[in-house]
Each structure stands twice: as C-alpha cells, then as structure tokens.
Amino acid sequence: MDISIIIVNWNTKDLLLECLASIFETVKKMSFEVWLVDNASVDGSVESAKNKYPDINVIQNERNLGFAAANNLAFKQMKGSYALLLNTDATLIDSAAEELFNFMEANPKVGIACGQLLNTDGSKQNSIANFPSLLSLLCNETFLRILLPNKFPSKRREYNTPIEVDSCIGACMIVRKEAMDEVGIFDERYFFYLEETDWAYRMKQAGWGVFFVPLARIFHAQGKSVGKSVNKKIMFYRSRYIFFRKWQRGTYYIIYFAVFMRLIANTFLTLLGVLFTLGFKEGIKKRFIIYLQLIFWHLRGCP
Predict the structure, then answer these.
(1) Is 232 exposed, middle or buried (0-12, 13-18, 19+ CB in 10 A)?
(2) When comparing pLDDT for 150 and 200, which is higher?
(3) How many C-alpha atoms does 287 have within 13 Å on its Cβ side?
(4) How far apart are CA 122 and CA 293, in angstroms?
C-alpha cells in the first residue's frame, strides 16, 4: 500500500463528502486506502460517507477525542508507507497526492511534507508554520514574514521548488511511516492546534526533514472544520502553552506573561475600535467580547 489517507471528522458531513470525492477523483497512480475517524458526529456524516464510498475504513468514537488522538487510532492500523492527513475542509486538486508521494519517494530523509493551500478563489493561503518563539509572540507574524522572509517563509513569496521549513499547516500533509515508527505519533495532550508543529519539532530533533512542496495544490476552506467561537481561541492558547511548557520550560513563565500582556494590549486596542465606531461595527464588538472571555479564562488559571 502506497498511501493511507486519514480524515478526522466532527459534524462536517457536506465538507467530508467533498473531501472524499476529491480523493477518488484525483488519486489515480498510487495504491491507497482511506481511514475515516469520526469524533462522535450527530449529523449523519458516517452513514452518508459509507453509503457513497463503501470501501473506506471507519473508526467511530463515542466522544470527541480531538485531532491528535483521533489520527493516532488510524496510525496504529494503517497499511501504507505514508499517511496523508487531510482535513474535511480540504480538497485535493489534480495530482496533489502524487506530487507529495513522488517527492517523499525521491527524498528518503524527509519525514513530513505539505503542499500549497489555496482559497476557493485560487489565491494562496499560508501553508507553512514556524516554531513558536518569544519573537513570534512579541511581533506581528505578517511583519516578520516581510522583514525576515528567509526565516519566515510565507505565501508572499513565489516558490517553484520545494524548500525546507520548520513545520507544515496540518490541513494536508504527508508523513513517512518509517519516521513515525522512530519518532512516535501525535502527542495527545494537544486536542486541536500545534500537534503537527510539535511532531515536526520532534522529527527535526531525530534528523528527519520537513518540506513544503509548492506544486502540490489543495483547496482549503480555512477553519470550517473547527468552527468559530471563543472555544476555538481557547484551544489555540492551550495548545501553545503545552508546546512552550514542553520545549521551552526554562522561559515558560516569561512567555506566558508576554502572551497575556499581548492579549491585554489587543483587548484595549479593540475597545478603542468599539468606542471609535460607536459600537456599530459588529465584527469589532465580537472580537472585543472574545478577548474579554480569553482574559477571564487566563485569570481562572487556563482550565
């Protein structure tokens, strides 16, 4: 088996069916299996997927285990030489899977690779993630990508050949089974966000490369698989703190303070925006409320 395609789903039936259709329409030159790991959906996702694609493998969880733990269930049963992780809000274009597979076959010391994520209008999304650091916390990442483009690669530059990166955005990435066996699978302390960044960090420590392959192109309806709420923001903050506590223990409390102070600053600036627009800008008001909820979550000890 060349590739095991793994999809984690939680109540995204329509996106899931589009994602599955893109697999069976575009993956032609490789042997593959599909693993659908469902996190206790109640929208008929599994039934619809099985009716349309009866040969897929399904793991149904009784509760939402999160992204890392759900993927790990499939990793333990997959038969492929590679795992291709695909979010339900991602759809493969033409030869995307083949491009990633061929790159991995030609570069045996690469552990993880990802392609170029695209908005539905064809414009580029950031597909590369840098390891979190005090610099990236204190400075705007867009500013860093402009000021230090070699250290912070992004969609702002045109890449015609693969480049080595810190980490990949997990919406679509291919992972070598041999590297998994050496490094281990996802750290299940991450419920959602940064699990792939932690994995890339461990891969690099073990000597495996992490690369961006620009010719592999994937549509990504960014964020639709996780939704939008304060809970999404809390999951991100919690995952970031897990990463720093794990890998930068000596400076963890400095980093925590820097994150909290930046949150306070953002809240104050958003409040000024609310006052300046007399509260008529609904988006600014919602952002301010979310910032306040995040502050209270911090004050309660980040439960």
Answers:
(1) middle
(2) 200
(3) 17
(4) 35
